[in-house]
Design brief:
Blueprint: H1 7-21, H2 30-60
Length: about 60
């Protein structure tokens, strides 16, 4: 689960590289960073909630 916290960092690095290679200023690509962080946060929270919900089942069995 801890590896998922690296997901937004890696995606932001790739996004920065993409912007740099295409000559687009970072300020102009700000919306992409917001999307990356929002989608990654949603995935991390969803998986965290599923892990929390199913943790009780692992203890009982």
């Amino acid at each position: 689960m801890a590896k998922f916290f690296l997901l937004p960092i890696i995606l932001c690095l790739f996004w920065t590289l993409f912007l740099h290679l295409n000559g687009v200023p970072i300020k102009q690509g700000k919306k992409g960073f917001i999307y990356i962080i929002a989608i990654s946060a949603t995935i991390i929270l969803s998986l965290g909630i599923l892990l929390w919900i199913t943790a009780g089942q692992n203890i009982r069995s």
